[in-house]
Write a structure and sequence with these properties.
With about 70 residues, this protein is mainly beta. It contains one helix and five strands; from the N terminus they run E-H-E-E-E-E. It has a three-stranded antiparallel beta sheet, with helices on one face. A two-stranded antiparallel sheet has the order 1-5.
């Protein structure tokens, strides 16, 4: 598996029956980890359950991606 084996998180979740909402966090880097350049707030919903977390990245991507487990 390499870095090209990824899929946008919302697209991967939709294929699994999971609702994903992704919102880019404001550019206030003082609240990000030292290494992070970008952050998102992510909410996942599945069968009446909900999980919310933040995801940080070191580069400038248009949306979070996930590695495909093949």
């Amino acid at each position: 598996m390499n870095a090209t084996d990824t899929k946008p998180l919302a697209e991967l979740c939709a294929g699994l029956g999971i609702t994903a909402s992704v919102r880019e966090l404001d550019g206030d880097l003082t609240t990000f980890p030292d290494w992070a350049k970008q952050g998102w707030s992510i909410v996942l919903k599945y069968q009446g359950k909900r999980a919310q977390f933040r995801f940080y990245g070191g580069g400038k991507a248009s949306t979070p991606t996930a590695l495909l487990n093949r």
